[in-house]
Design goal:
It is built from nine helices and 13 strands. It has helices at 9-22, 30-37, 84-97, 123-131, 156-164, 176-186, 189-197, 237-251, 265-272, and strands at 2-3, 46-51, 54-60, 67-75, 103-106, 118-119, 135-146, 168-171, 200-206, 209-216, 222-228, 256-259, 275-286. Strands 1, 2, 3, 4, 5, 6, 7, 8, 9, 10, 11, 12 and 13 form a 13-stranded mixed sheet that branches. The longest helix has 15 residues, at 237-251. The protein starts with a strand and ends with a strand.
Length: 288
């Protein structure tokens, strides 16, 4: 394992190729996903190992310094079944142990992560985790929002109603840092990083005060995070911001959008017809 800042050039491209071949459920954004993980927040301690046909990326949690994460494990289909995945996991565990980790998790390390955990459809990964002594400790899920021609993502009427209440809805540009400050104040620095690094960021304000935000593309191709300050809840700004983001994702060529690490199922189901679809198992193992 090498410190993550050294992952570049040909090693980065080898990692991208392994991911593109192995991550069949995430093929359209596999390369972008590796590049995103290779550009985390500046204070993140992370490392990478690129082998012949495989790659593993690992990091330490900024909230819990003794907790390590396996951020990505990918083995080219031609190399699967030969023990390479096991070797990569063990190498990552030893690297994390050497930096003070007492527990390793196959779970997302916000704000820069690939998935909440192991997608249950990547069955080989789940089998590998359990054979190495990892235990399942939580379940998370994504929702899928349709973006096809029949999907209603209109916001004009709702924006007119908001304007009547003095609320303006905007796409962040040069004022992105201002929105990120709002996010940090009301939620946390992790969401603020995602907002600052998102492909698209929309917000609502009244009298110069930011009230709500929604972002997409901080994790390539996914929607989120989003949030509304308590004083603005019930106005309908969340639905408008969500639809504006999804409309941008559709314009970028996506047929669907994944809403990552979902909490409020009912909101997304009613606002855009999203359905719960992708399930993740979160694993952990204490290091001896």
């Amino acid at each position: 394992m090498r410190e993550g800042s050294a992952l570049g050039g040909e090693d980065l491209e080898r990692a991208v190729r392994a991911a593109e071949a192995a991550l069949t459920l995430d093929a359209p954004e596999a390369g972008a996903l590796v590049r995103r993980l290779a550009a985390p927040p500046p204070d993140r301690v992370w490392g990478a190992l690129v082998a012949d046909g495989g790659v593993v990326l690992a990091s330490l949690s900024s909230r819990e310094p003794t907790v390590g994460h396996l951020d990505l494990l990918a083995v080219h289909p031609e190399r699967q079944g030969r023990g390479l995945g096991r070797e990569l996991v063990r190498a990552a565990e030893e690297w994390l142990r050497g930096r003070g980790a007492t527990q390793v998790r196959l779970a997302g390390n916000p704000p820069c992560y690939a998935w909440p955990g192991v997608d249950v459809r990547y069955t080989a990964a789940a089998c590998l985790a359990e054979s190495l002594g990892y235990e399942r400790y939580h379940v998370a899920w994504n929702m899928t929002a349709p973006l096809g021609p029949g999907a209603d993502l209109s916001t004009e009427a709702d924006e007119a109603l908001l304007a009547g209440q003095g609320v303006a809805v905007r796409r962040a540009g040069d004022d992105r840092d201002r929105v990120a400050v709002f996010v940090a104040e009301h939620w946390n620095e992790r969401w603020a990083w995602e907002a600052a690094n998102a492909a698209g960021l929309h917000y609502a304000e009244r009298d110069g005060r930011v009230l709500a935000f929604a972002a997409w593309g901080a994790r390539p191709a996914w929607f989120g995070p989003m949030g509304t300050a308590p004083e603005a809840r019930g106005l309908g700004v969340g639905r408008v911001l969500l639809r504006r983001c999804l409309a941008e994702q559709r314009a970028a060529g996506q047929d669907t959008a994944e809403i990552g690490w979902v909490g409020p199922l009912r909101f997304y189901a009613r606002a855009v017809g999203a359905r719960a679809e992708r399930v993740f198992w979160l694993y952990r193992r204490d290091l001896a």
